[in-house]
Amino acid sequence: MVTEKIEIGNALEWVKKVVEYFRSYQPETKSMVVNYKTFTSEIAIFIRVPDDPKRKLSKIEIPAYQNFVIADMMDESFNHVTAVWSFVEGKWVLDPAKLPTSEKYFIVMSGKVPDDVVRQIVRVQPAMNKDSTDELDRFWLDSMLRNTEILEKIWDALNIEEVNVGVRVGIERFFSATIPKDIKRRLEVTQRFIRAGYGRDRNELFRAWHRMHQVAQESDTRIEDIIDAIYKLTSGELFSRYVYADHPYKIGEIRRDEAFKGIYPEKMAVEAKTVLNLKCPVATGYLNFKKKGYENELKDTFDSLKDEGEDK
């Protein structure tokens, strides 16, 4: 635990340095927003620059740590203050004499946070299938800010957005249980023919083509329709109907696992995302997969596909 605190402190050393440059200007509110997925960040600081003779005698110089830039500056009336910062030899430089008559200013700096820094701040527990019923598979979600007492010494407000927990939901068994045997054969022989096409065995290629032609005579369902159905059933749009997340999580990106070991996709990659901050540093809950409903969707689709083939 002590080692972890030291690591977090070191990871945020560059942030503390930025804040230190404003020490003489009485920073009142310090906030940081970090996007966990993109590592983009914004730092916001309120400072006080008295409108007195001393203003003309000093300058604010901030080294451009981590390629941060001065994104915006506003006075206490929320008027944008422009053309007062310059970039000189790796530093952002402000001549306070150029400021308007306000005394309070809001500065926003934006840039990229190194991914190792973000990983030091946030812990995401790999999602596991913790519970299962006839209707649902439930995956435990657990993420948190590490050592909030250190973070609170630096920031008055800290938001980590889009903290995502990746869940791989198994679906292969539902295809195996619902797909009709003749459709399964068509997929198997087509896969065999495609595999033979990448090889150098001409005899195997001919045998695979011959077998595929035989099976095609036994079934009226077109292979194109079968593949289209599988892609639709494993699309993020359709699969999203069968997953939901407990508060404070929401469902994010959904995609199929493109690496097929068999003739169907094995898993769907589902993202559960949340926001962590100093007031709510821990987020737990379940990602729920309505497996019975999804299995029925597969069964209805393949039954309909087979009926359509027989009607042609």
What are the SSEs and their pairings?
Elements: H1 2-11, H2 13-20, E1 30-35, E2 40-48, E3 60-63, E4 69-75, E5 85-88, E6 91-94, E7 104-112, H3 115-121, E8 122-132, E9 137-145, H4 148-154, E10 157-170, H5 172-178, H6 181-198, H7 202-218, H8 223-233, H9 236-239, E11 243-245, E12 250-256, E13 267-277, E14 282-289, H10 291-311
Parallel strand pairs: 1-10
Antiparallel strand pairs: 1-2, 2-7, 3-6, 4-7, 5-6, 8-9, 9-14, 10-13, 11-14, 12-13
Helix pairs in contact: 1-3, 5-10, 6-7, 8-10
Could you explain how this protein is built, in words?
With 312 residues, the chain is α+β, with helices and mostly antiparallel strands. It has two domains: 107 residues, Immunoglobulin-like (Sandwich), CATH 2.60.40; 137 residues, no CATH class. Helices cover 35% and strands 34% of the residues. It has ten helices and 14 strands. Strand 5 and strand 6 form a beta hairpin. The longest helix has 21 residues.
How does the major sheet shape up?
A: 7 strands, mixed
**N-to-C span:** 68 Å
Mean pLDDT: 81
Helix percent band: 25-40%
Helical element count? 10
Estimate what percentage of residues fall within beta strands: 25-35%
Rg value: 29 Å
Morphology call = elongated
- Count of all domains: 2
**Uncertain segments of ≥5 residues (pLDDT<50)?**
1-6
Largest sheet strand order: 4-7-2-1-10-13-12
